[in-house]
Amino acid sequence: MKTFIVLFFAILSEVIATSSLKFSEGFTKPIPSIIVAVGYGLSFYLLSIALKTMPIGVAYAIWSGVGLILTVAAGMILWRETLDWAKVTGIVLILAGILLINVFSKSTAH
Predict the structure, then answer these.
(1) For the chain, which has fewer Cβ within 10 Å, the N-terminal or C-terminal residue?
(2) 18 neighbors 64 (Cβ within 8 angstroms)
(3) Positive or negative CA dihedral for 47, 24, 19, 34?
(4) Calpha distance 51→25 (Å, rounded)
């Protein structure tokens, strides 16, 4: 359970960093630029801790999939980006892949 909490904070840090990229306006704004650097650094550090007890494929699938979904949500909330059928289909396929790996893969038992 501790591993998933660490992974959650790795994902959250990555989403904050990615969202701050847009606010940084090409790294011309200092505060958002610092948030990007710290957020990605923290995210990769926490991901490396999760990888001590979790298979890399599973951890990365969860990290990237959930990160994508939260980043799409941030885009909708912060910049009023819209969802179309292609985005929704892609998100559903990512979720299906994460579920498939976690339910049926023998490599998840570590």
Answers:
(1) N
(2) no
(3) positive
(4) 32
